[in-house]
User: What shape does this take?
Amino acid sequence: MNDKCFEIGTIQAFLDGETTSELSFRLTGHTAECGRCASLLAEAEEENSTVFAVLEREMNTLVPTQRLWSNITVALAEQKSRVSFWEKARGYVFALFANPSLAVAASVLVVAGLFAAVWSVRTPVSDNSDLAANTQISNVGVQDPSSQQPSEFVSVVGGDPEIPTPPAKAPLQVKETNHSPEKLRKLVTNADYRPAADQPRTEYAIEYLPGEESYVRKIDDLKQNVDLRKDLILDPSARVAYERDIAVVNDAIKKMKEVVKKNPKNQAAKQVLYSSYQNKIDLLNSVVEREELMAALQ
Amino acid sequence: MRKGSLKLNICAVVVCFAAVPVLVAQTPKDPIPPKPPKAEVEQKPEVRYPVRRPPRAPEVPGDTVEKALAVDPQVNIKLPCISQARVTINGWNRNEIRVFIKNGSNVGFKVHETDPKSGKPVWVLISRQPAGGALSDCISGERIDIEVPFGASLVLSGRKSDTRVDSIKKISLDYAGGNVALRNISGGIVAKTYEGDVSVENSGGQITLQTSTGNIIAYGVTPGEVGDVFKATTANGRITLQKVEHRQIVASSVSGELIFNGKFLSGGIYSFKTSAGIMKLAIPQTSSCRLIASYGFGSINSEIPLKIITETVSGGGKSLNAKIGEGEATVNLTTNSGQILIIKQ
Assistant: This one.
């Protein structure tokens, strides 16, 4: 035995797995060299095995004894009795706001409250005012029987920039009325107003020449295909040539459309227009066919 | 009513302000665990078309191969893929196919069908012979020479090959690029090349020539049968037709010139179109045809006297309906801004 020997308590703690890793390392190193400590360790292990064998059934039940339960219950009761009302309330509130959704809801409530307060302060309050009479109506087709102005609707026009759109009329704006609330209610009830989605869509059909529509559709289909792939299919020189040809054809189509628009009976212009459409189809087709060929040669 | 709502609002504000300090004091010890990432909205994959550039043929010098196969004189031969090479196909007076490839891929014959009487192949495929590590079935080489019987019909596809074909019966050719020269083909031609010139000489039958960025030249072409059509289409090249004796000719170029030098045959229907190119028709003074010209913003000039039937000269929609001689052939001329010239031969 020497000064480095460990006490039995430490050895017991080691056997119970309660020592630190550093201490465990030192202890095992020491017992390898010290015969006394090694025998102490062996004795302690033997005792442990004996005790654990006897207590095995009790320890494996994993059920706390009745005394332990009663002690726990008493301790909890004492702790509860010492907690004040405010602490309880604080705990409750903290628990409540620990939920993020509730916190967000509270924030929304705060903002809504602030907005309501500001709105209440800014809106003049008048006892004789009627909500209907103060409402500003704009862009709504309230037909006023006293005025002969026809009701108007917000027109919905397609998004195609090429489709000519008629100039929008100034919307009817009713800023103030002198009608009685009953009359106003009647007017509003009978107003021929529909939401924008339900309004009759103003269609400006493009007037095609006979057979022109099929050309246009075909070109649209081909163009979608070609635009996606032309960068992959055409090398730079071919691409330049293609774009130049397309520009020439587009220019011809544009000019001829104008001519035909001015004089729809001009058969020569129509023929040139159709020819230009066909040229465009041929150009687009050549790209598609080339792509198909390259794919087939893989 | 308004007062009541005002009070209610004020009460709500007071309650809210009371809640503010609580919220401020609420400093969670543990940061709120981040929510598990939501499943990402399935986005449509971007449409990306694979680059359809085929693997290049080996540039390294390959083998020099020569192979031959006895075939039927009317054999049909198919070369499904020719990669970069200089191709020469000649007809010869032997019932045999011979393929010679200099510094290129190995090649083989595949007989699809034989003649039941003679037992000789009537349908042959010439393709690259599979080899370890071969990336493509395309035939490639520095030079490919093929000899076939005079009566052979060929079908060729390729990437970019300069090809000369002489003295066979029929050919159908589809190239991504390269110049094509065809001579002495009696039974019909279909030649498409997207970047390159196409020339046809002393040939006959139904003929279709197409290129995107090249010129088309046809000289001494005759129909094989009544009703055979000659068609030539290019985007920005020049079309030159000389002594083309088909009774139906359709020629179209977007921005290139169109030159016709020949006769308008009786009963023939000729259609020439350009968008911006010049149209020159060199015909005999004794021609008999009816001209129907629509020339948009272009012009028309004739060295041969025309019997004008109708004429419109309004800007953008100019047209001319006229006769030369008895008007036995019909000639349709359409251009947007090109010039039409009718000149004496």
